[in-house]
Amino acid sequence: MALQARTLRCSAGHSFDLARQGYVNLLHATVPKGTADTAAMVAAREAFLRRGFYAPLAHALAARVEPEQDRLVIDAGAGTGYYLTHVLDALPEATGLALDVSAPALKRAARAHPRLGAVVWNLWQPWPVASGVADLVVNVFAPRNADEFRRVLAPGGRLLVAGPGPGHLADLADDLGLLDVGTDKTERLDAALADGFRLVDRADVTDRVTFTPDDVRDVVLMGPNAHHLHRNGLADRLAAVTDPRTTTTTAFTVSVYERLG
What we know:
Blueprint: E1 2-4, E2 7-9, E3 15-17, E4 24-25, H1 39-50, H2 55-62, E5 72-76, H3 82-89, E6 95-100, H4 103-109, E7 116-120, E8 134-140, H5 146-152, E9 153-164, H6 170-176, H7 185-192, E10 197-211, H8 213-221, H9 234-239, E11 246-259
Parallel strand pairs: 4-7, 5-6, 5-8, 6-7, 8-9
Antiparallel strand pairs: 1-2, 2-3, 9-11, 10-11
Helix pairs in contact: 1-8, 2-3
């Protein structure tokens, strides 16, 4: 595709206009309900991340980039672009591509960094990216399409994956009855990437934080639990949170893989 004014065009004659906010929507298929982040979820995420509770994770990701190598960075499931922005700040010569199925999220991501492009796309479909062109793929709390990770990364390119670690928000999960994040995600990730990737680094990033009632509501409403507010009265329990100080643990596992081949 080539950008002409504010329109992306391909040699077959297809064209896609950039939205006023700067992103482009290449997705014409219907997204199943409960898949994409809604405008309300995106607003909650932006408000929560702005308060710095997940900054240690963003810094851990940025610390694992390679300025001499990473020129094209793809964030698969970029959301509002919070983590990709930190990565690009550590890579002054790199360009970032934010892929996400949520248009409300990419409206914000497109403006998050001057070297960032944003494309609405379903990560479970083949990505609108050429093969072997990416130096770094970032995947944070997002769907993991191992086949596309392998395809778009150049040999020697790296995959940077972050997800919830043991005990993440455990106090809130117990009190509010939140969705179970599972205890075997790391093992399943290693198994999914066994063909074509080599694990080169893994670290746990933990912190003890104190939330206000608004923090509690935002951290729940920005994630998958927001699609299940009426499950067993979660919405009512969330509305009833009044304790001025709720202490809990944030825990993330950051894994770095190298693309073999």
